[in-house]
């Protein structure tokens, strides 16, 4: 389906400061755990008693070691613990260990299995080294654990994505979707996000999520692959945030972060005011002056039992966004906050309550220069805008330690996400885009519009979810199981500003602009009119259950077996179910081999299948009342104020993509539809080679097994019907059933419900794949990751990685970076056979080489230096144009500049025979190289006080992540800006911080 951005879109890209910040503690691979708690496991003598005590809250658990000498304490809240072993004779050993969410901490009180099993000396170990080995041999997953303390040493921009991009296998996504990361070749819309175990992913398009304030984060886990059966609804990564909580000591603090615009550089831009095709990169002066402050504190309401933590975050951000012909001035000053209550009712029962708000409001003014004046920035005010995103979230969780070996938990949450936007010019000012290099004045007309779409006032989403999880230790087997259900209500509706979009283009006579639209002789410019509008209230339901077994086959070999079953249901605006998928089976298998029995060398591997839900965007656009059509005209003049043309003759017919009717829910989806899913295989190793040093590698293979997208072509099916005994009327009905856009698994046989005789009675029609003429959806990711880590020892730490990766296929997934389309499940991929010609190749998230290096060094007792380096190769370049009029697909030109046929290196009009430029064959974007630095001062003369200075993109490199891939204006002429750089790296910024804790 053609593009329709679900969220407000401004002329420029607005940079937001909404983010969570997370500390960093790289733990290699980590055992499959709950996403809100960890575990302590290890070896001791049979009959010993092992007790854990949280050093900050007093939370205590105790277990008697069994006959095999192993012990395990699960569902442990993140934090620092004393682990105390007491022998039957009264001998005591103690360790101090850090437990992180989603990880297992290995604490052994006997010598390595390769030697005699004698007790270690009765010593007390302080810190996180010593007997606690950093390699977790009970793991089959690929996980990065991030803590606030570690992040405070690094010069990372204060948002979740930039921290996540430190991990191997992650790359920055297309900035048109926001600041998001791609994990393992997946699209940026295929990740899932949790806060304290509650799913906060916005599944309208998957490109947003609720976020807690930076200073409220205790740690985050990022699962980049191989995650267990507990986790699903993701083909990319799993990101879980654990928030801070109160302790037995009342503590508080205040922190200030100021990024002055006077020390920042402006966003670069490829500037060509004469439309000659030659650009120069200029500093636009687009900057943000940001001031963020936090007040926080917590402590015991009842010692050892009831704890409180609260945080208030204030923000005062002022942004200047300059572009050709005008500018925006906006302000963000929304307060946000978090409250956390932890009640340890007794040693067997714990209750957590979390409430947080990330609601963010933006208001500003748009300025514009005189029509045709393409100077960057400035202008006079033409209108104002307001937008709101985020919302309030409430989470409650109970954990019961019912026996030494059986734990049960239950969670309920409710979350809101607003997508409101409005502006003063939404009624009378249509969207106007002028890509001409010459023609009727004013060339480069901008009109008076502010936002691309005007939405309904109550646009937003509400999620209600519950889940139950349990763990039962039975000898050598640790069984985990659970079930969950969530309902996601979406209120949505939008149409173009002013009810229309006008696009001015230069044309080449004889070129095809759309089906039946041929540029007339002597005409060198045209204007396209487009209308799109939709809306309604929609419900999406997801449910799952899982069972997994971690089996300690021998003392040094662990096997993991899991199975996950999921179901997805999507309803239209009238409450009719149009997707109801049950019993998707996702097996997960893995092993971990502690080669020497001393946790110094680990070999591991896993294989699994992963499903992702059908997002609510599909409800809105496929099953709702959407009207979408285009018309083409000559014109004789342009209103310089509004950009509306003085129309001449209409060229060709009106072309519809959607008719505006609510379709019968039984007629829009394949009866045999599978949700999108992929298989993943990982094998790797991790080993120590010196004190505090670990190294390792992972080999990864991901293969998309079933794509899911809409198709809008019925020609092949109609021809098949005529050849197989259907009448012409019935063949026409089959054509119509698919032509209005039909959700299926591209490249596979489909089953449609069709009204064959016009009576309203639906008949099932099974159509073979070869009749449709579309390829099967393909996406593969193959990578080798090399890692080297040195743990922090009070003086310095270092982490380095290199990833060699290939991401190849004919679909990116739930978004389409080729054109910035975030229509999850219904992108323009596979709509028409002609659009898939040449579509197989290296995908937008293909980054062949990625080098990442970061760390920190304690210069003196008061000064610390942190640094980060990224060097990454660029993404492939394409050449997009209108599908040629002499090609065999007569409908593919409807989508305009959407095919892999273009005029680069050939004559125009572009022909079917020599115009094909397959995906990724038009070059590569240059490498990105970024250096960030940080300096912290913690004066001895004022305990709790610290000062910080962070410089991001120190050398202000003007590297970029993509270029403009559109060769064609839309009517057969070359766009002047083809291959102009865009999506620049964030320019240099300097941030000062002051923090005082008491």
Explain this structure.
The chain contains six helices and 60 strands. With 998 residues, it is mainly beta. The strands form twelve sheets. The chain has a 32-stranded mixed sheet that branches. A five-stranded mixed sheet has the order 8-15-16-11-12. Strands 3-2-5-6 form a four-stranded antiparallel sheet, with no helix packed on it. α4 (715-723) runs antiparallel to α5. The longest helix is centred in the C-terminal third of the chain and has 12 residues, at 728-739. Residues 5-33 and 112-133 have low confidence and may be disordered.
Q: Give the CA-based shape.
A: globular
Q: What is the quaternary state of this protein?
A: single chain
Low-confidence stretches: 5-33, 112-133
Distance between the termini: 56 Å
Q: How many beta-strand elements?
A: 60
Helix/strand-derived category reads mainly beta
Biggest sheet record: 32 strands, mixed
Helix content: under 10%
**Rg calculated over all Cα atoms:** 29 Å
Overall average residue pLDDT: 91
Strand-residue fraction? over 45%
Helix count from the secondary structure assignment: 6
